[in-house]
Design a protein that fits this description.
The complex is a heterodimer of chains A (1516) and B (353). Chain A contains 58 helices and 33 strands. With 1516 residues, chain A is an alpha+beta fold. Chain B is extended. The chains are: A alpha+beta (1516), B alpha+beta (353). Chain B: Belongs to the CDC50/LEM3 family.
């Protein structure tokens, strides 16, 4: 209902009208109910009638809900499609050529025939488009005919309608799990609080529930919402695609306005969850919905190779023009020469005059262009498209890129840049969610300056690693029980319970079960057992329960919290903050909350007005009431206020609660919610050190909203950190039980259930980097602000503490301690969050509230005002503590990075995380190496940054040509912030790494510094940009792309990576935890980071090499074919006649010679996948564009010229001086060309499958069949050529066969010779790899056996197999030559391989490098035996890894089996070493005893261990 | 194992050899070791074939005579000089005398050869109407536009056969005389002028228009002969099976040659005493010299040739096979050297480790 708002309301002041008009023109839409009577019927009011009329007029402009994504209709298809196709220049060109044929003077072919190929190509494309359009139409139809309930005015009830019939202004009723048909303003919900939960998975892939709220004013309605009574007018924005914003207002009849926000809008495509029924009015429908406006279809990118190809096509055009010009000049001369002489064969013009040589030359030029048009390959574009589609299909289908856990495979979203994957030089990666799992696990915390290291928790996490690394093993892990028990006897019961649950989880940890689990609980994110089950630190747990006990005692007193020591008080607040300072939604599975008939208390919703506030708080202050069940037992007469908080409980329990509240205090409280806690406490008091059962809530006293048994509650958080914290708090028995928009219920150990009145939630934003909740504490009745945020921000907002009094000093001490711990956490690679609190006095609150409410109700720049308001609140905080959350590395990240490195890829990590965290993750994933020098750039200003860059450049330059040793010793540290512990570098040529923070990056990206920065960055092995904004990320990518002319790939998983993904040549999204925004923007979506390895190294390489070879072949083929025609011009007076029949000329490319090259282009594998994976260096061939360079292009063209010479002159000489006619001579040439093409393709084809053979056979067969049929079909039908019975005659002519034999052989002899010679003398890396893969399948299958066995613990390794494996690796390193590291690791690995962990006195650092490299190089195999086996034995199902491992013909050849045993040993030691290895490896300072034993004799154990632990990290 | 216990995911790709790109494949490696036997085998085969071809081509006898009549070369120079610059040239005849010391093994074919004659000139090559030639009455009356300017005569009559190719029909004629004994009389050697065209051309492609009242001349009534022709198409021969469009000389001429130097079959000698070949003795070829080629630097040749299974005499193929074969062998040796050295290296490398 687009209409003039002025007409909808009573006319206001002129000024207001003007404003409205502006708005109308600008950006508003007005919606009113469709149920209002139609114009003129009952309503005599002129203004309304006018409005209604306008509305009718406006309806036409308003999209209905019909979805129409099709591009064409039956009528418009042909013109529209043709129009679109002619946007392609090539098509226009070919049509032009074809039309040229209609000019009699220049025509070369039968005009109709000349059109055939163009029409064919156009038809193929049109058919493809038609098919796509049809499938779109079908899916549209399906969606359009989905049903929903729409209120009908006639029937006065909701009736079933199709989606497409829904119109703006309709009232739609949705039930649970229904999909929302349009953008709907939520007017009523069955939820008691007017809430509605939606799942936006269809929109952004996020599976957590989002909360939507009934429009204010409607939520207060007690009775069922009746659409007929809806007379308000909704003014809102014009349709736009901003999913995160919706603004507008609803104008009631009374003239009262209420704002509408994003929280009121249900978006099309989302699903209603946990809410029984909702009713809303349609605001945007069909294509105006935000979901559809966001849908922008697939992206078109042009690949690097295609750009190069287009450039070469231009060369071909040039060549064509040159040839034609040459021909034209030649013809002019020829005509001049023969014309005067009245040659018998000269043909005058039709009027008898003779053609002037110049005219003849011009005609000849044009005809030559027609005849030689084959040089511009018309089928090239189509073929490339076909090949790419097949490549995409194969990539999609690759089972190795299939993630079972999420049941997702790799998706190619961009269809035409597959070959770019093989040429990437720079990878820009996000960290969180990309390198790491983005599964946040609470790891440790510090509260009020005391660190709780959560060792047991660390061990637990370590066990998940093991569990995953030995996934097949189903031995119960009873062995570790006693040890766990020792962590605290009072915990033993719990421990038993836990160990059981861990066991089940351990099994769940195996991928298969995890998949099942994830399928079962599809709708809950962040809920793996690893994240849920936190093992509490015993010390802290005790303090918490002590705290609870004290509070339980003190609760009846005036100031319960005052009885706690400051530390305990902090602990208490800390956990309260963890529990409630978030936006976690608590759900119990599949139970929408019922709308209860209930009394609404006035204090239901958050404070909205000052009066409200005063009403609410003044009395409560007077009576100092407290308002939760937990505190009702207090002796205060808190009837009115207190009772309000029962509102969420079902009726009977509310009554019960009331009763109890009125009843006597504690001793009598035995039957309600908190009694169990009390009982538990009592029990504990009696036997403080006895095992304590988990407080089990009693079912009957825990009604509806609170589920009975533990575990049924599901926490759905918007960010995984929040969930991690809530789960952590739950481990300390501080359970988040329920959250409504105005209250939070928490269950505490001894206090039972406390209900906090939630006054405000100030959500997280990336500028503030924190979030806060304002609550009223039920125990103290104080207004508290709990803030949780990045340490850098929160630490600055703390209440300045005076150094005078002891308390202040104490605080200061706590702060510095906390800061220390925070640094420690960061060094450990944990994500840190600070928790702080502020107690507001009522006055302060009132003051703030006033401004906040103003901000909230502001219509203009509301966001800005709210931001300011939040800033005002979040000051003078009191630090409670900090948490360290571990974001674990994804599986195989270090290996993948190592592989990608080996593949010559530069990896830059661009992260928003803080420097220390980022550096540590970088170390953990082997992006940084302790051998490396780390240059850290932290500049405070532009000048400083410039100076630093200069300094670094100097340094880099000075060390690059054999640097002086004293310079390299010790790491270079520049900058103002403390640099990471220096790594000792003693050898020449350690690689450099650059770490730069966001601010310095901003300076470095300035115009005058970017070159220096890039130069420096180019020298570095890895670059780490911390604290970078999304914009900076994309700027960095852009810079590298444009300045270094490098192929870039950006990979990320979150919205903050979108810009970077879009800027890069290839954007990869990780379909991970953070929604689908990155995926939507990406060209390829992978389930996990590690799949990047296979995607790039295998598929990228294949796609590139296939396509490059195919394009080259295309150029060769066309040039060679055109060459034949061109040489003929020398013998036909450059008259542009062709000896090849027009049919062959036109269809040769299209039919006869296209299939084999397509098959090769799709299927050819120059190097098998496993070899590519084990030898990533091969990837560099794509980076260096070895297959398709200008040089290869011209060589190729030269070869084509040579071949055409041979193929022309052999038949020429063979038929010289004979009575052969044009086509009897031309047909053998055509056949020769075909054979030559096929043989040439044969030389280029590296793998011959039956498909290749079939295609070649088919080509030949097709040619002869077509030729025979064509030559027999009609004697006179195809002027000007007249090939009747030619082929038949030729088939009886031995010379035909003889020339067909000799010419292709002679033509290809040089190529074959050169290739063979080059293959023997100067083989490329690729050829070596192929050789190896081919030569030694048996040799390699032997180590394969031991390799696979190595993973079964306890299986003895046999000596002979070791020997064999050694030999295999030996032969390998010889084969690939020149790889220093491979040679170097031979002596290093052999003693270990034979089972003695003795020292090999190499002493050379090279050895360490090699060792590490070797380890990381082979770990993918180690971490997933199933995978390797599969690679190895293609003919067997992957389900039977053990039985097939022997049969494997090709194993991972380079996987250095001797190392597999080493890694096996180390993994054993790590099993006993438990989780501490991880820690140890990161700090590089501590050393676990067991590992030390094992590896003590190593020269530099920590380095070796780092390798090992890195590997175990990846066993996850 | 849990692997097999779990259900397949909905998106799990098919694990087939094709989709996983694991089709069994032959993976040849282009290197000395594989090229070596290839080169030797191909080389030997080619040399063998080449030798065979060479000798079989050498067995073919050929006798050719350039009768263009360049100044002082033969008695045809008179005719050539007479025709110089005149169109149409006056009727003239000359003769070529030659003697055979021994039997010219038959069957003997008589060819004429033209050089520097561009029958493959594009505008020339398209200047014909196949439909007219196939005897289609409508096409006879309305020749195709491609025939222009030989589509309609000056009088506006359709030209039959139309087009430049027909217009330029070779019109020299030859007769062969044999003198058995020196001083003896010359006996005419019968020349078989039939069966010189392709069977399909003569029987399918070229057809006379339906006879009118049994007369071919009437069928062609209302058409004009091509400007260069002295007689109408139905008068090309007295033999009703060899006149009109199916005159074999005409049919042969209409099969346009591929290259500017070409031969066309004129006659076969296979009758009577001459079926085994031309016996020894002196011969005279009477040439009716009509066709002017000197203007554009062309030459006219007359050729007697026997043929073998591979057609006329052309040593090229044999030589080509020999050369390519030898090249293969040569390359094979290079490969051998490379192979041996490379192999040594390999062994050394293996010894090192």
């Amino acid at each position: 209902m687009e209409q003039e708002p002025a007409a909808a309301e009573e006319p206001g002041s002129p000024e207001a009208r003007r404003r409205r008009r502006r708005r109308r023109e600008g950006r508003t839409r007005t919606v009113r109910s469709n149920l209002l009577p139609p114009p003129g019927a009952e309503d005599p009011g002129t203004s309304v009638a006018k409005g209604a009329r306008r509305r009718c007029a406006g309806t036409q402009h308003l999209a209905d809900n019909r979805l129409k994504t099709t591009k064409y209709t039956l009528l418009s298809f042909l013109p529209k499609n043709l129009f679109e196709q002619f946007h392609r220049l090539a098509n226009v060109y070919f049509v032009f050529i074809a039309l040229l044929n209609f000019v009699p003077a220049v025509n070369a072919f039968q005009p109709g025939l000349a059109l055939a190929p163009v029409l064919f190509i156009l038809a193929v494309t049109a058919f493809k488009d038609l098919w796509e359009d049809y499938s779109r139409h079908r899916s549209d139809h399906e969606i359009n005919h989905l049903g929903c309930l729409v209120f009908s005015r006639e029937e006065k009830q909701y009736v079933h309608r199709h989606w497409k019939e829904v119109r703006v202004g309709d009232f739609v009723r949705l039930r649970c799990n229904e999909i929302i048909p349009a953008d709907i303003l939520l007017l009523s919900s069955s939820d008691p609080d007017g809430l509605c939960h939606i799942e936006t998975a269809n929109l952004d892939g996020e599976t957590n529930l989002k909360r939507r709220q009934v429009v204010r004013g409607f939520s207060e309605l007690v009775s069922e919402f009746n659409p007929l009574t809806f007379t308000s007018v909704i003014e809102c924005e014009k349709p736009n695609n901003d999913l995160t914003r919706f603004r507008g207002c609803i104008v009631h009849d009374s003239g009262k306005k209420a704002g509408l926000y994003k929280e009121n809008l249900l978006l099309r495509g989302c699903t209603v969850r946990n809410t029984e029924a909702v009713v809303g009015i349609v605001i945007y429908a069909g294509h105006e919905t935000k979901a559809l406006l966001n849908n922008s279809g697939p992206r078109y990118k042009r690949s690097q190779l295609e750009r190069q190809m287009n450039c070469d096509v231009l060369w071909c055009v040039l060549l064509l023009v040159c040839m034609s010009l040459f021909s034209a000049v030649g013809h002019g001369l020829w005509v001049q020469r023969y014309q005067e002489k009245k040659s018998l064969f000269d043909v005058p013009e039709s009027d008898g005059t003779s053609l002037s040589p110049v005219t003849a030359a011009v005609y000849s030029f044009l005809t030559m262009i027609i005849v030689l048009q084959v040089l511009i390959p018309i089928s090239l574009y189509v073929s490339i498209e076909i090949v790419k589609v097949c490549q995409v299909h194969f990539i999609n289908q690759d089972i190795e890129l299939y993630d079972e856990e999420t049941d997702s495979q790799l998706q190619c979203r961009a269809l035409n840049i597959t070959e770019d994957l093989g040429q990437i030089q720079y990878i820009f990666s996000d960290k969180t969610g990309t390198l790491t799992e983005n599964k946040m696990v609470f790891r440790r915390c510090t509260v009020s300056g005391v660190e709780y290291s959560h060792d047991a928790n660390a061990r637990r996490l370590a066990r998940y690693q093991e569990a995953d690394s030995e996934e097949e093993e189903v031995v119960p892990r009873g062995g570790s029980l006693p040890q766990r028990g020792s962590s605290g006897s009072h915990q033993s019961v719990r421990i038993v319970h836990r160990s059981q649950s861990t066991r089940s989880h351990r099994r769940t940890g195996s991928r298969a079960e995890a998949k099942l689990a994830s399928m079962l609980s599809k709708h809950t994110a962040f809920s793996s057992p690893m994240e849920k089950d936190i093992t509490p630190d015993p010390k802290l747990l005790e303090k918490v329960s002590e705290c609870g006990r004290c509070l339980a005692f003190a609760r009846h007193q005036e100031h319960p919290l005052a009885h706690l020591s400051p530390e305990l008080s902090d602990i208490f607040d800390f956990f309260i903050a963890l529990t409630i300072c978030n936006t976690v939604v608590v759900t119990s599975p599949d139970q929408p909350r019922q709308k209860q008939v209930r009394v609404r208390f006035e204090l239901k919703s958050p404070v909205k007005t000052i009066e409200d506030f005063l009403r609410r708080f003044t009395p409560s202050r007077l009576t100092s009431s407290c308002s939760s069940i937990g505190s009702v037992a207090a002796t205060k007469p808190a009837h009115k206020a207190g009772s309000s908080f029962l509102s969420t409980l079902p009726n009977d329990s509310a009554l019960l609660g009331l009763e109890e509240r009125l009843g006597p205090p504690a001793p009598a409280l035995a039957s309600n919610g908190y009694s169990s806690g009390a009982r538990g406490w009592a029990a504990q008091c009696a036997a403080a050190r006895e095992p304590q059962p988990e407080p089990e809530p009693e079912p009957h006293s825990e009604p509806q909203p609170q589920p009975g048994p533990e575990g049924e509650l599901r926490y759905e958080a918007e960010s995984p950190d929040e969930a991690a914290l809530v789960y952590a708090a739950r481990a300390y028995n501080c359970k988040l039980v329920d959250r409504l928009h105005d209250q939070v219920s928490v269950e505490l150990p001894h206090l039972g259930r406390l209900t906090f009145e939630l006054l405000h939630t100030l959500g997280f934003d990336s500028i503030r980097k924190r979030m806060s909740v304002v609550i009223r504490h039920p125990l103290t009745d104080e207004i508290n602000v709990y803030t949780k945020g990045a340490d850098s921000v929160v630490m600055d907002l703390l209440l300045p503490c005076s150094a005078d009094d002891a308390r202040g000093r104490h605080q200061k001490k706590i702060r510095s301690k906390t800061q220390n711990y925070l640094n420690l956490y960061a060094v450990e690679g944990l994500r840190t969050l600070c928790i702080a609190k502020r107690v507001l006095s009522k006055e302060e609150y009132a003051c703030w509230l006033q401004s906040h409410l103003e901000a909230e109700s502001a219509l203009d720049n509301r966001e800005e005002l709210l931001f300011q308001s939040a800033l005002r609140l979040e000051t003078n905080l009191h630090l409670l503590g900090a948490t360290g959350i571990e974001d674990r590395l994804q599986d195989g990240v270090p290996e993948t990075i190592a592989k990608l490195r080996q593949a010559g890829l530069q990896i830059w990590v661009l992260t928003g995380d803080k420097q220390e965290t980022a550096i540590n993750i970088a170390y953990a994933c082997k992006l940084l190496d302790h051998n490396e020098e780390v240059i850290t750039l932290n500049a405070e200003s532009q000048e400083v940054c410039a100076a630093l860059l200069d300094q670094c450049l100097h340094y880099v330059q000075s060390r690059s040509p054999h640097s002086a040793p004293e310079k390299t010793a010790g790491s270079l540290s520049v900058g103002f912030s403390p640099v990471y512990p220096p790594s000792t570098v003693t050898t020449a040529g350690p690689s450099l790494s650059l770490v730069i923070d966001g601010r310095s990056l901003a300076y470095a990206l300035e115009k005058n510094l970017e070159d220096k920065f890039l130069f420096l960055a180019k020298q570095c092995r890895s670059v780490l940009c911390c604290r970078s904004t999304p914009l900076q990320k994309s700027m960095v990518v852009k810079l590298v792309r444009s300045k270094l002319k490098a192929m870039t790939l950006a990979i990320g998983d979150g919205a903050n990576d979108v810009s970077m993904i879009q800027v890069a040549d290839v954007g990869v999204g990780i379909s991970g935890q953070e929604g689908m925004q990155a995926v939507m923007a990406s060209d390829f979506a992978v389930p996990r980071f590690r799949y990047l390895e296979r995607l790039l190294i295998v598929h990228g390489h294949w796609c590139y090499s296939r396509l490059a070879n195919m394009v080259l072949y295309f150029f060769y083929k066309n040039t060679m074919f055109v060459g034949l025609l061109f040489w003929f011009q020398f013998y036909c007076g450059f008259s542009a006649s062709a000896m090849i029949d027009q049919w062959y000329l036109i269809f040769f490319n299209l039919l006869f010679s296209s299939l084999p090259q397509l098959v090769t282009g799709v299927l050819d594998k120059d190097v098998p996948a496993d070899v590519l994976l084990t030898k990533p260096q091969l990837y560099t061939s794509g980076q260096n564009r070895e297959e398709y360079r200008p040089r290869t292009f011209w060589l190729n063209m030269a070869d084509a010229a040579f071949q055409s010479l041979v193929c022309f002159f052999i038949p020429y000489l063979a038929y010289y001086d004979s009575d052969t006619d044009v086509f009897t001579w031309g047909t053998p040439i055509t056949a020769i060309a075909l054979f030559t093409f096929l043989l040439h393709l044969g030389i280029e084809t590296k793998t011959w499958t039956w498909l290749n053979w079939t295609a070649c056979g088919f080509s030949i067969l097709l040619f002869f069949t077509v030729a025979l049929i064509y030559n027999a079909s009609c004697a006179t039908c195809y002027p000007p050529s007249n090939p009747y019975w030619t082929m038949q005659t030729l088939m009886g002519d031995p010379v035909f066969y003889l020339t067909c034999l000799i010419a292709p052989v002679a033509a290809l002899l040089p190529r074959l010779f050169c290739k063979a010679l080059q293959g023997s003398l100067f083989p490329t890396q690729l050829q070596l790899a192929r050789q190896l893969a081919k030569r030694s399948p048996e040799k390699l299958s032997a180590p394969k056996g031991t390799f696979a066995q190595g993973h079964v613990p306890g299986e003895p390794r046999t000596e002979p197999s070791e020997q064999r494996s050694l030999r295999a690796s030996g032969s390998f390193s010889q084969d690939c030559g020149s790889q220093a590291s491979w040679h170097a690791q031979q002596p290093a690995c052999s003693p270990e391989a034979s089972g003695e962990p003795s020292v090999v006195d190499m002493g050379m650092p090279l050895r360490e490098d090699a060792l590490l490299e070797g380890l990381s190089g082979q770990t993918p195999g180690a971490s997933s035996p199933g995978q390797v086996v599969l690679e190895g034995c293609p003919r067997y199902s992957r389900r039977k890894p053990t039985s097939t491992s022997r049969a494997a013909p090709l194993s991972s050849i380079f996987s250095l089996p001797s190392f597999s045993s080493l890694s096996w040993i180390s993994s054993l030691s790590l099993v006993s070493g438990l989780g501490s290895v991880l820690q140890f490896s990161r700090s590089g300072l501590q050393m676990d005893k067991r590992d030390g034993e094992f590896l003590a004799s190593r020269p530099q154990p920590d380095q070796d261990l780092r390798g090992l632990s890195g590997q175990t990290t990846d066993c996850f | 194992m849990t692997w097999s216990a779990t259900a397949r995911g909905a998106h799990q790709p098919d694990n087939t050899a094709f989709t996983q790109q694991r089709l069994p494949a032959w993976q040849p490696l282009l290197s000395a070791s594989i090229a070596l036997p290839l080169f030797f085998c191909a080389g030997l085969a080619f040399i063998g074939l080449g030798l065979g071809l060479y000798y079989s081509s050498n067995g073919i006898k050929e006798l050719e005579y350039d009768y263009t009549g360049d100044l002082g070369t033969s008695n045809c120079s008179v005719c050539a000089a007479a025709g110089q610059g005149r169109s149409p040239p006056p009727r003239c005849s000359c003769a070529w005398y030659f003697s055979l010391p021994e039997l010219f093994q038959g069957p003997v074919y008589l060819y004429y050869e033209l050089t520097n004659f561009y029958q493959n000139y594009r505008r020339y090559g398209v200047s014909r109407d196949d439909e007219q030639l196939s005897g289609l009455p409508s096409a006879l009356r309305h020749p195709a536009n491609e025939c222009a300017p030989y589509q309609l005569s000056a009088a506006g009559l359709p030209i039959a056969p139309c087009g430049a190719i027909a217009n330029s029909l070779f019109n020299d004629s030859f007769s062969l005389w044999h003198q058995r004994r020196a001083g003896g009389p010359y006996v005419e050697v019968p020349l078989d002028r039939t069966g010189i065209a392709w069977w399909t051309d003569y029987h399918v492609k070229f057809r006379n228009p339906p006879l009118v009242n049994g007369s071919l001349a009437l069928a062609f009534q209302g058409t004009a002969p091509p400007p260069n022709w002295h007689r109408p198409v139905y008068d090309l021969s007295t033999d009703p099976n060899n006149t009109g469009f199916i005159n074999q000389d005409f049919v042969v001429w209409m099969r346009t040659a591929a290259l500017p130097t070409f031969r066309k079959l004129y006659a076969r000698i296979r009758q009577g005493n001459y079926s085994t070949g031309l016996p020894r003795g002196a011969y005279r070829v009477n040439i009716t010299y009509n066709y002017p080629v000197r203007a554009f630097g062309g030459h006219k040749l007359i050729i007697f040739s026997s043929i073998s299974w591979m057609g006329g005499k052309n040593p090229f193929l044999g030589i080509a096979y020999l050369v390519v074969g030898s090249l293969c062998i040569l390359m094979g040796f290079v490969m051998l050297v490379v192979y041996i050295r490379y192999q040594d290296q390999n062994d050394e490398d293996e010894d090192e480790e």
